[in-house]
Design brief:
The protein has 291 residues and is of the alpha/beta class. It contains 11 helices and 11 strands. The chain has helices at residues 2-20, 59-69, 85-93, 106-110, 175-186, 191-196, 206-214, 225-230, 241-244, 262-274, 276-284; strands at 48-55, 76-83, 100-102, 134-139, 141-145, 167-170, 200-203, 220-224, 234-238, 247-253, 288-289. The strands form 2 sheets. The chain has a 6-stranded mixed sheet. α2 (59-69) links the parallel β1 (48-55) and β2. The longest helix has 19 residues, at 2-20. It is globular. Mean pLDDT is 88; it is low at 1-42.
Length: 291
């Protein structure tokens, strides 16, 4: 009941702000679809666009959730930009319009948050509304192989053996790449030696790693469990917390957003982690929604 009240209040805030008039350019927004019969008693708000920057590993789930959200807030147009969290962080710092940021790692969010205490935000960038930041979901890091697993890779430990000819991981600016390096270090596997032996190749985001594995271009790749599910890849090992820590995705409404979109962005964020349908989609591919 508390979750329903929270979402209702968030949506009511959107309606309240719209009724007061935000001065936004409603002429450029998409015409909202008719309100479903089940929502007919709910007042119609002015059209608003919410620009969401999200980690590539969230693309499949957020695209599906967005379709569901049309029945809840048909006046809201969700515009997504999916890429590596490092790339998205850089775009935001360079002035890109972003109403809501969903990162696959804390580091990228910390670099935009003036409240950061980890030392990542050295220049004091202040782009996060601090009272909106939450830990949204948890993921797992796995070792995936192509169909039939021709190299016979069965565990992370095999990456130090002659079984491995070529491993694909994200570069160090990509959260899954950072987790990959932590795993290798924890197992005493020298990444520099893998590079010298020509046994590692890098990708700019986790989707590229998954595609390399799917196509059989590499012996294996380190990706998220959710991407392994989405791409129907075979998982042979899963990293424990002692190998790479917890894989937490933070989310926050951003000060770099459009005028008038803050309340709508907050409402969508509330929906993501409180609505039963949205939670079902996220957990259906392997995420754990953090309540």
């Amino acid at each position: 009941m508390k979750k329903l009240v929270s979402l209702t209040l968030a949506l009511a805030l959107v309606l309240g702000l719209s009724a007061c008039g935000s001065g936004g350019d409603s002429g450029t927004a998409s015409t909202p679809s008719p309100v479903p019969a089940t929502q007919s008693a709910q007042p119609q708000a002015d059209p608003v666009e919410v620009v969401v920057f999200a980690a590539a590993s969230l693309e499949a789930t957020l695209t599906q959730v967005a379709q569901q959200y049309k029945t809840v807030a048909p006046w809201v147009t969700l515009t997504f930009n999916f890429d590596s969290s490092g790339t998205l962080r850089t775009q935001i710092k360079e002035g890109a319009v972003c109403d809501l940021f969903l990162s696959a790692g804390q580091s990228q969010m910390n670099e935009l948050d003036a409240a950061d205490t980890s030392g990542k935000n050295a220049d004091g960038t202040d782009l996060v509304y601090p009272d909106t930041r939450i830990n949204l979901v948890e993921n797992k890091v796995v070792l995936a192989v192509p169909d039939d697993n021709p190299a016979g890779i069965s565990s992370f430990s095999d990456l130090a053996t002659d079984k491995l000819s070529l491993l694909c991981i994200g570069n160090e600016d990509v959260p899954v790449g950072s987790y990959s390096l932590q795993i290798l270090e924890s197992l005493g596997i020298d990444i520099a030696q893998l590079e010298a032996d020509g046994k590692v190749t890098y990708a700019s985001n986790v989707t590229e790693v998954a595609n390399q594995v799917k196509e059989g271009a590499v012996d294996c790749g380190i990706i998220y469990a959710t991407d392994a599910f989405t791409y129907a890849l075979t998982v042979v090992d899963q990293a424990t917390a002692d190998l790479c820590g917890q894989v937490i995705y933070p989310a926050a409404v951003m000060k770099s957003g459009s005028e008038g979109a803050q309340a709508a962005a907050q409402a969508f964020l509330e929906y993501l982690h409180t609505d039963a349908g949205a939670v079902s989609v996220l957990e259906g591919v392997g995420f754990t929604v953090i309540q």
